[in-house]
Every structure is written in C-alpha cells, then in structure tokens.
Amino acid sequence: MWQIAQACPKHSPKRAVGSGLSISRFSLLVGALMALGITQPVRAQAASPLPPEMMKSTIEQMSNSLAQYISGASCTDIAQLIKMLPTNASNLAPDPNSILGAVILSVKNSPDLQSIIASRVGPPLIGKVIECNMISPELLFKVMSR
After folding, report:
1. For the chain, how far is it from start to end, CA to CA, in angstroms?
2. How far from chain centre, in Å, is Cα 54?
3. Which of 28, 54, 55, 85 fits a 20 to 30 Å CA distance from 17?
4. Are 35 and 118 within 8 A, CB to CB?
C-alpha cells in the first residue's frame, strides 16, 4: 500500500503527518483503495481514531486531494498507479492498531464515508479512465453481452 502513496511525490505538501506520510499521500492511499474497490474483507473491528465529525472532515479533505491528483495526472501516471495496486492475494488486512489501519477500517465499515469518497473521487476517476482509453471495446462488448 505504501507504494501507491509513493507514486505521487510531486503532489505532496511540505508538512508531513506522523512518520513521513503526507496528507496527499495518505489521501491517495485511502482513496485509491476505496475508489478502485481493492478491498479485503474486514477481519477486525476497530474504534475510529478520530471523532465522527473529524473523521468525516478528514475523509472529505483526502477525497478532494485524491480527486485533484487524478484530474491532473497523466494517463501514464494513472496506469502506473493501477499497476501498483495490490491483488487480493498480496493485500493484507489493515492493522487495526495503527492509525492508518484504523482509518481504513473506519471507511470500510461506514457507508457514509464510502459515499463521500465515491462521490468526490468517482467522477474524475471515471473521466480519466475514459480519457485514457482504459476500457477497451472488447471489454464493453463482453460486459454488454451478459
């Protein structure tokens, strides 16, 4: 998961959160995982590390940052980001004892937080997928023929 965040060093602010994880990198990480649907079943319940209103505000800011990154990214950047996403076999469940893991679990357990991410990140992501021709006609025909 850390590799996803490292894909966009030119977009990180100078201030860092925690152990060098900047807000925009954190945004990219959480948003990419949720927006692209690369998730594992929740294996542990963890209390949110932030109060509900602060969590909502944080997710809104992260979603906005991710949407802004996606909108400005090149097709090569998006393709590289997608290639770096872990497969289900290599994607370990988040550690509920870490702040990042607890935030990810909070998002996975909250339809409201997921909706925030989807509504803010979804449109620019779909737009970029279309702009970059990442959906082949063959895939469309396959889906439509079901």
Report:
1. 33
2. 19
3. 85
4. yes
